[in-house]
Design goal:
The radius of gyration is 34 Å and the shape is globular. It is an alpha+beta fold and 1597 residues long. It contains 52 helices and 33 strands. The longest helix has 32 residues. It is 42% helix and 9% strand. The strands form eleven sheets. The chain has a five-stranded mixed sheet, with helices on one face. Strands 20-21-24-23-32 form a five-stranded antiparallel sheet, sandwiched between helices.
Length: 1597
């Protein structure tokens, strides 16, 4: 925010930070966003499907485009609303969503189509609690209800139920979709799913009122919010009005304007904070219905150029205020909010207790709550009865007669069946294991690690007893561990996974296992025996237990003697826990203690994640007996329960049916997206498990007689193939290398087509798994494909890379709908008979109609155009920029494609060029026509003359000319496109010339498309399209040049500005991908950095780049190395490789598996089974010299970069790398898990790793990430609001986004994490510190669980949490968190990183606050050094650093040093900001003060010297800094500024806003800020933007 405001900011921070919150009266709602015009209906060239798609962007936005998308979000709004009572507008300028952090910034990068890790469950969050209900879809008669919250979807078209549902061992809250045809309800249910992993687990509420709301801060939330309004197909409002807490406003689709079915009943006003909601309970609200503008679809992806077709569609997500009178169709919608009520639960053996429920809930959910409650968790087989009537599990509470406030529900024990008994045992085992982290270390059942609670010593919420501790400073031990101090060289590994006290689980039993006497013989079955268990108690008593229909009792069998008679006493108990309590006192004591601990854990520590996260280190764990684990390993239970009818899942049917679900309104879309997401996460888990089984040799091939590489497998209805070039399919493309990259290219194609989401076009479920050096592709199976020959089934495309080609009208029609968003040109090719065939994709893309009648497309590996920099073609001349950089360069395969982000950025770039060219030509024409200079000055066209003339007075005339020029171009382009003959030929000429210049395929409008078949070997084009092909070739060359001349320099510039701050390889790769730069350009990027003038300021990027280059090259070698290794030699081979790669030991020797195990004779025969063809022991002869030589040549061949090192030590020295960082990077890339211990890499006498150090090897999985589109739009709108300073509205929109994300993804997802982080930031700025703390705690837990405990994002989350802890006076916790963040950063990167300066400033400030001055100085001076290096010694950041150091010296009374630092700071302020700037004045005041203090001190000292002990000593003022002043500085360095605005400022702002509104109206023809104008806005905002998240637009005031 220009420097002028910056000064004001800092002065008033203190008094504003601690101001009271503005009141939250129930009526303070955000003004609803009115509805934008539905211009889509008018688009002449828009395919029908796209029109119906509602807010489904038919594009996949990529960073380049959404950049502009964010610019055009409306800058206008009434600022007075943003004003707090005190008249301050709060702004947060250093984004907490920094894309910098790399990975999870995906949201604000609007990187909608790219990486995001994912999840399960339907756990609501915050205001919307967690209970999701399945509403029966009215269209279907048969009522399939899911289990706990997984919504049942039933496709009306066919007769099956796809219940998005749960695997007991995985996602909370949803059941595998089985296809029981009409089995009806019971089939899908089963309380056997363990609450431990259940979404609907209850956390104990405030005493006496346990609330089943999981994350809603234990039990505080009123029932009304607990229900996440279930998505329901909406017919009539009255009958179906749903719970408003989620903000689903229920509308009548029929009333949609222009007949489009895209009513979006989602109103931000609904997402109010819990407090407001309590007050609003029972109020009826009238809400104007809000619709997602059709415009989103266009702007989002194919860039603004769409806007030339038909009316302008640039209105962003419902932001632009439309004229109220514009649409008479606005419907009033009445939403009734259901209030919850309390019922009494009477369970055997405990006091009756009350439970809050909501009418929306199903009886099933009360079951789940009881199975998770501490005192009833041991029951699984029971029914609930009201007045003696058994309640139906799937009935909603509101449908049950007589159930009301205060009703008494009895828990009645039911007889067991075999299935119920198994469920019971499994549940008890899960309760016993609930604190055991071994599943997380082993990477099973979607468990993952979290260590936050170790550093916060329990929950941050118990502020009561903890807060007191914070204020008494003496108790705080602030000394950081030695290795965290600045300058320390040791990087211990053990601290990465500190031992959690709760993990030493209280042992309840020694053994609980199935007995060998199972199953019961016939005669015992008839006595009711279901199964036998064998138990050894902690007291070492061996007992045999019978599970019978009536319960569990002891029998007289022993290990070798079968005697099923009941023992005496037999202790018959309905629950196994009650029985064990009677026979083992230790069990009784420990089990209850264990359950107490279990329910105290934060729900986010125990909910399953949607996709498995693997840990690259793990402690040595003892392997305990576990009957359930053993059973799971050998039955092929794959994410489905025994009780699901039909057993295996028909994955293809599930994947396609979920796509066919209706999507006309918000609830339908939520239901559909959630179903898609759930099936994808289940499919990914099953495919991963199958791929591992295939490589481990546990699956029989379908063509067993062929050679190993050519084998294919089917397992669990999934088809698996290996990444080898079978039958010379890829001979012309690079053989095996091409076959290895094809699956990932194909997966990218699948992602893209899925994101475009055209109705009627189907893709296969696709997962690519890299495991043990092999690449396996897992695909769902097209019905009928196995019975036919491929030649017969392919009716579109080519099976031999273009020799024979066929086409099909239906496919052309479907693919044409995707051609615009994907920028694919329809083109003709010649087949083997020289006939022309029309295609709308690349030739390899095949179309097959399955037996189910669906149109499938597969082999999408060339969806995007080829990258000519890596595809030398004879006789083709590349542009200058490419030749300068040494391109074209021969690559290993010919499948190099440009990334989708690049295509989008290139088209966006061309569009701006197009507008400029046309505007210039129009200006010239105008100049020739008009002599009148006045008119030229204003550039006023008749329609908007008045507005323009006002504008020109206020701003520079020249820019105006250009803007109006562009304005006219838009108008003109539209008129031409709509073809109404009124346009004069000269203007047509202008557009035609501009189109030609930028390579548009149309003469009348801007439309750039690529032909993916250009330069494809074997594809021939007809004579007639010769010219078109030439243009296409030129376009491809331009795109290749654009990558080198714009994108790479752009990336480096962003790194220089610190708008992008990668910390490790993954975040660097992400930053490159967001700009469309492939990893094969890594060498070029590093070279570019070395030639950049500010080279030293890019040190961190250079280091990350080099380590990424080394580890990627090593990974390539490791892949082929592993293929030659037998299973028995795996750990020896991996440890040998790591020794050669990282150890300083000169000649490590590999240990071959012991000879006595390897029989010589057998070996010969078994060679064939191994997939590699190398000798099985060849790996053992590798030496470090050879490996590093290979790494260097790989780096040269693949990345075209020359490494100057011959071994690990040299690499570490020359490039200043840490070996531990290299170890982390290589482990993450290859899936290796190593033992958690201290490794000595530099020992020259013995190798670093032994075989015992290699614990496991995990698969590395790539899959599709389905998106929550509506939630995403809300999130973006919220961000835009926040950037304009409307914090309250922003907060509501983001709360709404959070509800919708929870609805689609369940409780755990990176996007939810970003949402929580932003919410916490807003809570903090608005003064609600405890709410900020609670949201940020969730964000940290989620980041640890979903991204990994040491992911760069997690490090950032820790820093934010520390700030909020400090603001809540939890000082020791804040320090612990900062130390943890610093440790992780040292491990992941090292000390020399710009982010480390921020971290050290934070630590230094907190230490200063607790009066640890010497320690504080170490950190602050380190921060000063790093800031000077990365920001230049003259930057304002450095000035601030000097000031912080000076303050500590002042506290130590070392005034000379303090003066010296403050002078440095003063000089910087004076030079940068001028004498009269407030910062400069503040600094000079402080200098005066320091000088006075120094003089006073000197006087006193002189006095003492002169008069000795009887000197008259003046008391000196040494003040400890106040907490308020420390917090003020913390806010400043973390980029949170509170801007005090006087009345006058507000007036100015209002005037400015009105001026912009007029400007808006004058540009009514192109309802969008013109690109030029946008650029101007951006310029204004720039000074205040250290990060991408909040350009503070108020700066213009």
């Amino acid at each position: 925010m220009g420097n002028s405001l910056f000064a004001n900011c800092c002065r008033h921070v203190t008094d504003l930070i601690f101001q009271t919150r503005s009141s939250n009266s129930p009526d303070e709602r955000s003004p609803l966003l009115p509805k934008p015009p539905t211009s889509c209906a008018v688009c002449p060239e828009m395919p029908e499907a796209a029109q119906c798609a509602g807010p489904y962007p038919d594009i996949i936005p990529s960073e380049a485009v959404t950049g502009s998308l964010q610019k055009c979000t409306e800058y206008i709004g009434d600022l007075s609303e943003a004003k707090d009572e005190e008249g301050t507008v709060t702004v947060c300028d250093k984004s907490c969503l920094r894309p910098a952090a790399g990975a999870a910034g995906p949201l604000q990068q609007a990187e909608a189509s790219r990486v995001v890790g994912v999840l399960p469950a339907d756990l609501g969050e915050g205001p919307a609690g967690l209970v999701d209900h399945a509403q029966s879809l009215e269209a279907c008669q048969s009522c399939v209800k899911p289990e706990d919250g997984g919504l049942a979807h039933r496709s009306c078209r066919r007769d099956e139920h796809v219940a998005a549902a749960d695997r007991a061992d995985a996602a909370p809250g949803a059941h595998p979709a089985g296809q029981g045809r009409g089995e009806g309800r019971a089939a899908l249910v089963g309380p056997d799913s363990m609450p431990k992993r259940r979404g609907t687990a209850a956390s104990p509420g405030s005493p006496g009122t346990p609330s089943p709301a999981l994350p809603a801060s234990a039990g505080k939330t009123p029932p009304a919010q607990r229900t996440v309004g279930s998505p329901v197909p909406l017919g009539k409002v009255s009958s179906k009005a749903r719970d408003a807490s989620t903000g689903f406003v229920v509308t009548d689709p029929a009333a949609c304007p222009s007949g489009r079915s895209s009513c979006d009943p989602g109103s931000p006003a609904q997402a109010l904070s819990s407090k407001q909601q309590q007050q609003k309970k029972r109020k009826k609200k009238k809400l104007t219905h809000l619709e997602h503008p059709s415009g989103v679809a266009l702007m989002n992806g194919s860039g603004p150029h769409e806007s030339l077709k038909g009316e302008k569609d640039a209105r962003q997500n419902g932001h632009e205020e439309a004229d109220p009178g514009e649409d008479g169709n606005d419907q009033e919608v009445i939403v009734i909010q259901d209030t919850g009520f309390t019922v009494k639960i009477y369970a055997p053996g405990i006091e009756p207790f009350s439970l809050q429920v909501s009418p929306q809930e199903m009886v099933q959910e009360i079951h789940q709550v009881l199975m998770d409650r501490e005192d009833t968790c041991h029951r699984t087989c029971f029914s609930l009865q009201l007045d003696g009537n058994v309640l139906d599990n799937f009935a909603e509470l509101k449908t049950i007669e007589g159930l009301q406030e205060g009703s008494l529900l009895k828990v009645v024990e039911e007889p067991y069946t075999v299935r119920e008994a198994r469920i019971h045992v499994r549940h008890i085992r899960d309760l016993l294991k609930s604190l055991d982290p071994s599943d997380a270390f082993n990477g099973v059942d979607c468990n993952s690690l979290s260590f936050l609670s170790v550093f916060t010593e329990g929950d941050l919420g118990d502020s009561g007893k903890r807060k007191k501790k914070g204020t008494e400073m003496e108790q705080i031990d602030c000394t950081p561990p030695e290795h965290i101090l600045p300058g320390s060289k040791e990087r211990p590994l053990c601290a990465l996974q500190p031992q959690n006290r709760d993990w030493k689980p209280l042992q309840c039993l020694k053994v609980l296992t199935m007995s060998g006497w199972n199953p019961p013989p016939g005669n015992r079955k008839m006595h009711g025996d279901l199964m036998y268990l064998y138990v050894i108690t902690v007291e070492d008593r061996h007992v045999s237990i019978t599970a019978s229909t009536r319960g569990f009792y002891l029998n007289q069998s022993t290990a070798y003697n079968f005697n099923p008679k009941p023992a005496n006493p037999s202790f018959l108990s309905h629950s196994l826990v009650e029985l064990l309590n009677q026979i083992s006192p230790t069990f009784k004591k420990n089990f209850s203690a264990l359950q107490k601990k279990r329910v105290q854990r934060h729900p986010f520590e125990r909910i399953a994640t949607p996709f498995q996260v693997y840990s690259w280190t793990a402690p040595q764990a003892e392997h305990a007996m576990d009957c359930v684990r053993a059973e799971d390993a050998y039955t092929s239970r794959l994410g489905y329960e025994e009780h699901i009818p039909g057993q295996t899942r028909d994955w293809n049917e599930e994947l396609q049916t979920t796509r066919e679900l209706p999507r006309k309104n918000l609830p339908e879309r939520l239901l559909r997206e959630r179903a898609i997401f759930k099936v994808h996460s289940d499919f990914t888990a099953a495919a991963t498990r199958g791929a591992m089984a295939v490589i481990d040799g546990n699956v029989m091939a379908i063509n067993p007689s062929e050679e190993t590489k050519m084998q294919m497998f089917i397992w669990n209805n999934i088809f698996f193939s290996l990444g080898f070039d079978v039958r010379d399919h890829y001979k012309d493309f690079g053989g095996d290398v091409a076959a290895y990259v094809a699956p990932t290219n194909d997966l990218n194609g699948v992602r893209t087509y899925n994101a475009v989401d055209v109705e009627g076009l189907y893709t296969l479920g696709t997962v690519v798994v890299d495991y043990r050096g092999y690449r396996v592709t897992a695909q769902s199976i097209i019905p009928g494909i196995l019975e036919r020959e491929q030649e017969q089934s392919v009716i579109y495309g080519s099976i031999d890379f273009g020799k024979t080609v066929v086409s099909h009208p239906k496919y052309l029609e479907l693919l044409e709908k995707t051609s615009r968003p994907l920028k694919i040109q329809k083109h003709k090719v010649l087949n083997d008979k020289n006939e022309e065939v029309e295609l709308c994709s690349s030739v390899e893309c095949k179309g097959i109609i399955g037996n189910d009648g669906r149109h499938y497309i597969l082999d999408l590996l060339r969806t995007f155009p080829p990258d000519l920099n890596f595809l030398p073609v004879e006789g083709e001349e590349m542009p200058e920029e490419c030749k300068k950089m040494g391109f074209p360069k021969q690559h290993r395969h010919k499948l190099c494609c440009l990334r989708q982000e690049l295509v989008d950025a290139f088209v966006e770039h061309r569009y701006l060029l197009f507008m400029k060219l046309a505007a210039l030509q129009l200006m010239q024409q105008k100049a020739n026509k008009q002599e009148n200079s006045g008119a030229l000055e204003n550039g006023a066209s008749p329609e908007n003359g008045t507005a323009d003339s006002e504008k020109s007075e206020s701003e520079d005339g020249k820019i105006e000319d250009n803007v109006t020029g562009l304005d006219q171009v838009k108008e003109l382009a539209e008129t031409i496109a709509s073809d109404d003959g009124t346009v004069d030929p000269k203007s047509r000429e202008v557009i035609r010339n501009a189109c030609k210049a930028v390579g548009s395929i149309s003469d009348t409008s801007f439309d750039i498309r690529f032909n993916p078949d250009i330069f494809s070997p074997g594809v021939r084009f007809p004579e007639s399209s010769k010219e078109e092909v030439q243009d296409q070739k030129q376009l491809l060359k331009d795109a290749a040049a654009f990558l080198l001349s714009c994108q790479i320099p752009g990336l480096v510039k962003d790194c220089l500005d610190h708008t992008v701050l990668p910390m490790d390889g993954a975040t660097l790769a992400e930053a490159m991908h967001q700009r469309g730069i492939n990893m094969r350009y890594l060498g070029k990027v590093i070279n570019f950095i070395t030639k950049t003038p500010g080279r030293a300021q890019l040190d961190h990027i250079f280091k990350i780049g080099i380590s990424e280059l080394i580890t990627r090259s090593a990974k390539h070698i490791f892949k082929t190395y592993l293929q030659g290794v037998e299973l028995s030699g795996l750990s020896a081979a991996i440890s040998h490789f790591l020794n050669c790669f990282l150890s300083s030991f000169p000649n490590p020797i590999a240990h071959l598996p012991a000879d006595e195990l390897v029989s010589k004779k057998k070996n010969k025969k078994r060679k064939n089974r191994n997939l590699g063809n190398a000798d099985n022991t060849a790996w053992a002869s590798m030496t470090p010299q050879e490996l590093w030589k290979n790494i260097c040549s790989e780096a040269k061949n693949y990345f075209d970069f020359s490494l100057e090192c011959e071994n690990a030590d040299q690499a570490a020295e020359v490039y200043n790398l840490q070996k531990i960082t290299l170890l982390r990077e290589i482990s993450l890339k290859t899936g290796v898990q190593i033992l958690l211990k201290e490794y000595n890499f530099d020992n020259r006498h013995k190798p670093t790793f032994t075989e015992e150090d290699i614990l496991n090897i995990f698969p590395v999985v790539k899959h599709v990430n389905p998106k929550a589109s509506d939630a995403f739009h809300f999130f973006q709108s919220g961000q835009a609001k926040v950037q304009q300073g409307f914090l309250k509205e922003g907060c509501e929109l983001i709360n709404e986004a959070l509800n919708l994300f929870n609805n689609v993804y369940g409780a755990m997802h990176v996007e939810i994490c970003a949402c929580l982080r932003l919410l916490a930031r807003l809570n903090y700025i608005m003064g609600d510190y405890s709410e900020a703390l609670s949201n940020q705690q969730k964000a940290v837990l989620m980041s640890e669980r979903v991204l990994g405990i040491e992911h760069p994002n997690t490090i950032q989350e820790y820093m934010h949490l520390a700030l909020y802890c400090f603001a809540n006076s939890q000082l020791s916790t804040a320090l612990n968190l900062l130390y943890r963040a610093r440790y992780l950063m040292l491990l992941v990167f090292g000390e020399d990183h710009p982010e480390m300066a921020l971290l050290d400033n934070n630590i230094g400030l907190v230490l200063h606050g607790v009066m640890e001055y010497d320690l504080s100085l170490r950190f602050l001076e380190n921060a000063l050094a790093i800031s000077s290096k990365y920001h230049g010694s003259k930057s304002l950041k450095v000035a601030l650093s000097h000031h912080l150091v000076a303050r500590v010296y002042e506290s130590k009374a070392e005034f000379r040093s303090a003066l010296q630092h403050e002078k440095e700071g003063y000089t910087i302020y004076k030079n940068q900001l001028g004498e009269h700037h407030e910062k400069t004045k503040e600094s000079s005041e402080y200098l005066k003060y320091l000088t006075q203090q120094a003089v006073a001190l000197q006087r006193t000292m002189n006095e003492i010297y002169k008069n000795g002990s009887n000197a008259n000593i003046m008391p000196l003022k040494f003040t400890a800094p106040s907490m308020a002043s420390v917090l003020e500085q913390l806010n400043i360095i973390n980029g949170i500024l509170f801007i005090p605005l006087s009345q006058k400022d507000l007036e100015n702002l209002k005037a400015e806003v009105q001026r912009r509104q007029q400007l808006q109206e004058s540009i009514k023809s192109g309802e969008q800020l013109e690109p030029e104008d946008k650029a101007m806005e951006e310029k204004k905002a720039e000074p205040s933007m250290p990060s991408a998240e909040s350009p503070v637009t108020q700066s213009s005031a």
